[in-house]
Amino acid sequence: MKKFLKIFFLILFISIIIFTIVFQKRIMLCYGIGEKYISLKDDIWTTKELDITTFSNSMNYSDVVYKNTNGVSLTLDIYGPIKQVYKSSPVLLYVHGGSFAYGDKSIPVALSPVLDTFREQGYTIISTSYELMKNTENFNKQISDVKDTIRWIYKNKSVYNIDTEEIGVIGVSSGAYLSLMASYSNDEDFVGDTQLSNYPSKVKYLIDFSGPTDLSLLNTTDLNFDLSKIFSSITNKDNIIKKFNPMTYVTSTIPNTLIIHSNLDTMVPYESSKKLYDKCIESNAKAELITLNSTAHDLSTISTDDIVSISEGLLKFVIFNSPL
């Protein structure tokens, strides 16, 4: 019996060593994210932006033009890896929100712990812009902008030492919607720049923060002047709702998807994310849904329990989707 126990514990010890070596990068990535979230405590989920001056100091490339449409240049920012962990760097693409009409590619403070830790563990972070809606609806253009960003990453992978087998996307609100549409649709769909059309648009995984899916569920009452003009410009609503619905593009081969949404969200109803999750499960796609119970659409008044849920969910998702 003693001999058996010695052999058993020897095998267990060797297994732990092997597990630690093989998954060391994932363990360090998760530890770093958790440590940064704990250090920020209550300040993390405020709606204020990250200090742009401080963050831009660590930016490697600012306002890189990824496409030019009708004389209008669209740009992205690149934050390279702080440590050279991988031969080629995995990349995480950030797509901002702003009700389709507002916002920019500045990194919000709530995401800085995740993105900082990714960089420390060898990742490249790319934050992209897209043409904001003015006066009229233009879902097709915005989706093609995000999709062309992904194509641009493939085109320039050797220039920036990027591993295109390890592309993840994180989108917030309307940015999450655009990320879903760009990531779920086929390579030949939503082409903006013809010079990028021959490049793939496939990504490995997607993190969706409160993104709308069924546009008919959006709360369009009491909109401001800008948004009222945009939504009133839609004449063929049924066609728009069907064509520009991420659920239309769900198959078993879509990227692994993490959905985070509050059931108290009055701007983008929780039902929107629940329907997407159910469609993914029905289609045998890999998806997870984290339901928040305390906060509004902008994550204001978030509870400690929900912060824990988000942090834990992100950590698990990172473990199973980051490279070894």
From TrEMBL:
Keywords: Hydrolase, Membrane, Transmembrane, Transmembrane helix. Residues 76-279 form the BD-FAE-like domain. The chain crosses the membrane at residues 7-23. Pfam families: BD-FAE (PF20434). This is BD-FAE-like domain-containing protein.
